[in-house]
Amino acid sequence: MYIIYFMLILKNMTYEGGIRVKFRSVFDIIGPIMIGPSSSHTAGALRIGKVARNLFGRRPKWAHIHLYGSFAETYKGHGTDVAIVGGLLNFDTFDDRLIRSFEIAKEEGLDYAFFIEQGIPDHPNTAKIVVGDELGELEVVGISVGGGKIEIAEINGFKLKLTGDNPAIVILNNDRFGCIANVANILAKHEINIGHMEVSRKEKGKLALMVLELDENINNEIMDEIHALPNILQVARIVE
């Protein structure tokens, strides 16, 4: 059963939790088609989970899911919990298996737990997902801005703004001269265009994070070439 929630449109603008958001088309307003109990924020929750899975690079063994604001208040009624776990399983919004996310997670050995947080987030629909296995862990903070759209606001404590609308690579590197230019040169060599780029660091000369949204997906060979560059520590990919 498909349920579509319509939002009030005024001069192509909408307000959610006091935040003004601009949408490009009516499809951004009504959100994607989705299996099961659906709303634009349920779709957004799934995408946050899926981005966390893509950045982690493999199916995690465990996930701690922290919900804030209205996510914390309505997560069961809106299917947010089912959606996030489905995203961690790499399901799409239209996947028939989505309504069985909990059951499939158990079958595949993904242990998960939800934590309802009382803190007041910057955006009312915020989730922090911490995933891990025996090889490591990853922390992602994402928000649902409506119409199935999301923003990734933090990765392992690094502040950034990643929409997940386009293919992207996320690079952890030592904060050294030439790192950004070296990555850009490899992409230029392979005729890969950069649509948007952000750089974040916690302290000068320590660790830094590069986020590059691209016009197309890149293959494993280009990923390996970037990873082999000096001072590049980790490379993760978000595919469209």
SSE inventory with pairings:
Blueprint: E1 13-16, E2 19-22, H1 26-30, H2 40-56, E3 62-68, H3 69-74, H4 80-88, H5 101-107, E4 111-116, E5 125-133, E6 136-146, E7 149-155, E8 158-162, E9 168-174, H6 179-189, E10 194-201, E11 207-214, H7 220-227, E12 232-238
Parallel strand pairs: 3-4
Antiparallel strand pairs: 1-2, 3-5, 5-6, 6-7, 7-8, 9-11, 9-12, 10-11
Helix pairs in contact: 2-4
Short précis:
The chain has 240 residues and is of the alpha+beta class. Helix content is 26%, strand content 35%. The strands form three sheets. It has a six-stranded mixed β-sheet. It has a four-stranded antiparallel β-sheet with strand order 10-11-9-12, with helices on both faces. A two-stranded antiparallel sheet has the order 1-2.
Could you list some keywords that capture this structure?
240 residues, alpha+beta, 60s Ribosomal Protein L30, Chain: A, Alpha-Beta Plaits, 2 domains, 6-stranded mixed β-sheet, 4-stranded antiparallel β-sheet, 7 helices, disordered N terminus
